[in-house]
Amino acid sequence: MDRILDTGSYGICLFSIDVLQDFLKKEKVRSKKLLKNFQDNHDRYLTLLAEGIWIPFLPINSIEYVIKLDTYNQSFDDEWEEKLIYHNFNIEVKDTLWIADIGSFYEFDKNEFLGNDEVSYQTLDGETLYSGFRYNIPSGKYLVSIKGFARKKKLNYPNPNFGFLFSLDKVNEFEGFNDPREDEKYNFNVAGMD
After folding, report:
1. What is the Rg, in whole angstroms, of the alpha carbon atoms belonging to the chain?
2. Separation CA 53–CA 62 (nearest Å)
3. How many Cβ atoms are within 10 Å of 154's Cβ, its own excluded?
4. Which of 25, 75, 133, 153 is least enclosed by beta carbons within 10 angstroms?
5. What is the rounded distance in angstroms from the CA atom of residue 121 to the CA atom of residue 118?
6. pLDDT in tens, the chain (194 residues)
């Protein structure tokens, strides 16, 4: 079954909870407003990218996306068309990798992620939406590639018509880093490419 991520905050991010927690302790970050902290401290933001602590992919439309990880032998079939591909974003993993709505970092609560396979919430009409998924990944340093896909033939709601496939290539060390916020270089908004 497809994992469908609801992005209410115009972005997706990748992180490993233990790596993130270690970084926050080392940096003495006590605020739960991590997104604001990372935006207000540019040097810290660059360190996050260089050390593979966190990767934000934004801006994207605030809709639902199919999320796949090729490490799990997942891919998009011929009903989908590849629209974008970017490579070499750093991520360090300790046992688990989270792919989540970036809104999780407005008021970050690590307890939402600890011991859970997913983070979800209920809409007023009782629909369960998912804002984060956990993947078990061997510990290590990885270079992340992201591919964006669009359905060739659009389906009606609740079927998502866009998705992302993430690939992880294990490396011994990071050599430099890419900043996904370089808008002149990257466009992750696959839903805006039709």
Report:
1. 16
2. 24
3. 10
4. 153
5. 10
6. 789 999 989 999 999 999 999 999 999 999 999 999 999 999 999 999 999 999 999 999 999 999 999 988 889 999 999 999 999 999 999 999 999 999 999 999 999 999 999 999 999 999 999 999 999 999 999 999 999 999 999 999 889 999 999 999 999 999 999 999 998 999 999 999 86
59: preceding bond cis by omega (within 30 degrees): yes
Q: Which domain holds residue 85?
A: 3-192
| CA geometry: angle 91, 96, 101, nearest 5 deg | 70
Residue in the block written with tokens 């466009």: 187
Residue 24 sits at the vertex; the CA angle it makes with 20 and 25, to the nearest 5 degrees, is 120
Per the CB < 8 A criterion, the answer to whether 63 and 164 are in contact is no
